[in-house]
Amino acid sequence: MNNFSNRVCSMQASPIRKLVPFAQAAKADGVKVYHLNIGQPDIKTPKGFFDAVKNFDNDVLEYAVSQGIPELIEALQNYYKTYNMDFDKDELLITNGGSEALLFAMMATCDPGDRLLIPEPFYTNYNGFGQCVNVGVTPITTKAENGFHLPSKDEILAKIDDKVKAILISNPGNPTGAIYTKEELEMLAEIAIEKNLWIISDEVYREFVYDGLEYTSFGNLENVKDRVIIIDSVSKRYSACGARIGSIASKNKELIAQIMKLCQGRLCVPTLEQVGAVELYKTPVSYFKEVNDEYKKRRDVLYGELMKAEGVICEKPTGAFYIVAKLPVDNAEDFVKWMLTEFRVDGETVMATPAEGFYATPGLGKDEIRLAYILKEEDLRKAGEILRKGLEAYAKVNK
Amino acid sequence: MNNFSNRVCSMQASPIRKLVPFAQAAKADGVKVYHLNIGQPDIKTPKGFFDAVKNFDNDVLEYAVSQGIPELIEALQNYYKTYNMDFDKDELLITNGGSEALLFAMMATCDPGDRLLIPEPFYTNYNGFGQCVNVGVTPITTKAENGFHLPSKDEILAKIDDKVKAILISNPGNPTGAIYTKEELEMLAEIAIEKNLWIISDEVYREFVYDGLEYTSFGNLENVKDRVIIIDSVSKRYSACGARIGSIASKNKELIAQIMKLCQGRLCVPTLEQVGAVELYKTPVSYFKEVNDEYKKRRDVLYGELMKAEGVICEKPTGAFYIVAKLPVDNAEDFVKWMLTEFRVDGETVMATPAEGFYATPGLGKDEIRLAYILKEEDLRKAGEILRKGLEAYAKVNK
Prior knowledge:
Two copies of one chain form a homodimer.
Chain A: H1 6-10, H2 20-28, E1 32-35, H3 47-54, H4 70-81, E2 92-96, H5 97-109, E3 115-120, H6 124-132, E4 136-141, H7 153-157, E5 164-170, H8 182-195, E6 198-202, E7 228-233, E8 245-249, H9 253-265, H10 271-280, H11 285-308, E9 322-326, H12 332-341, E10 348-351, E11 353-354, E12 368-372, H13 377-397
Parallel strand pairs in A: 1-10, 3-4, 3-5, 5-6, 6-7
Antiparallel strand pairs in A: 2-8, 7-8, 9-12, 11-12
């Protein structure tokens, strides 16, 4: 009895997961492991969330409405207004995390065999979601050497055949930390119009933009407003990853009506988490400022350490809380494993994520890692040092 | 810009939804509407759920592990033990409601173009989930006249071609309220073995069995344990529909490992709801006894009223909290609409669900409705009376 579907068999188990036993073994040996491999922030979740949940006082925990509770829809409307995006109530849907929002956007725009155009490296689960609904990925390769910015319009156009139905981008980028310029977005918008494509814009890191850089949302481009689907989530913005509250926003009301059928199929998103999320959206702007300053400091610390290491190539990322760095190694996965099993500085080591899993093109990313700067400054400085020393030692071992 | 996927276009908007405006209009006119159309129980959620959520005291609401938090996995293990089902920890997964459990079971067993064998009438969303992942439904028709029990083995075998990959049943049945006998399950098990099919057993109403009837779970049949996938949920069992905590259980560890990849893709199920659900599973058995007695009483009241109406055909259901009744009308949807727009008894009326949407075979169910007996006895008696009087009046109007 082993007849699994091809689609589920084609999915890879989490690339991080196979390294977890090595981290566990190190910890069992009393080694302290700095986890730069996961995107779980240590920032406090705004207290309003917990207070609202604690004040919930119905006797029966009933189904919520499929769209999302009206209070949360309204909170989301107000949130978008601060970014000069004006969404009607019937242009918004609450989802089980950004994950479900992505899955639904793919289901609504692509049939089996269709494809998404995605700049690589990209969030691994884009591929996973695609596989489970039989949607392929056509990658646009971007490079560490120029901060993972987009190639030329012609290069992108050359990738598009009639199976491509949507452009999917993460901006700010996970795993790259890149912020696309307004010109890059306008180029993608032109392409979407010329080729009649949807634009699925994953903007869950919207507030994580540094160095006073201008951030443009696809929601601000007037000429594509009927084809833009904005994916969002409270996870990173409010350090509430465990709430699993995401959303879909689109000025295309017919699209929202189509996706509403998917929402009705799964009935609703948890009631309590929605009640809590309403309060998250009331968090004062000062919170973002504080969080932003903190992450910027962390980025500078980690990037600074990386730059001290010989042969590391990466532009300073300007958004999200990730760095993808090209290392002077042949096989980054082997290096990450070696760090966990062999290398210690005062009984401590570092866990990174090999970046190969973020690429769709075979062979790319083999010498790259992704680092999340989600630890406090002091720990991050130590982790950066250990990583640098590890690279030096690894170079000697592999001479 | 209207290129939606065929799969999303093929999905129907909720059949209940198009009648909602008529209910809203009636209410706006001051009419009281008894809702027998929805499966939202009025039973109190065990207080332990809310207490656990209120006692949660982490500062950061972090991602939970993809499988589900260990405490909940253990609680689920213990729960199944009371039904003589022994699941290892790696044979269980927590999901976003029974809905996600169903979707994942379909994805793991069926590729696009494959089919599920399902006794009809069935839970409408089976079809919806199937459509969004391109899986078809091959119905086995069951009838009100014999309490919606299964046809003969030969009749079922004749429906199966090589595109059918799994049998999907709901037991106790939604919308029928039927409990399959042990012999019926054994027959399906034989078929599954002969045709090498998976068995997806939706048992979310497991505790809702009346009249001292023996209930057999597919988890209790030894000869198919490697091909049974049990779908479960806290929604109905503990009147916690808004928690969206479901689960998948299977003795087939490889299947669980495959579905784990889907779980990793969506990262995790909300943390707080899982913390609460742990306590639900500690609810004493006396709770079920009380709830069960209450629903049995309600069933008797509603069924009694229905039987007073001339021409209504239905066997007394023995499980869940639904009745599907064949009415002496040509078009049940028209009747339901007429009740909402035209018929009142002392300023009150009743909303039922037309049953056509529960059938895959075109034309079936046109003269049937589903009723949920989820109101308290007194209200249910009134609602039953109004429905009966409505049928009499409708017969006169349509003579």
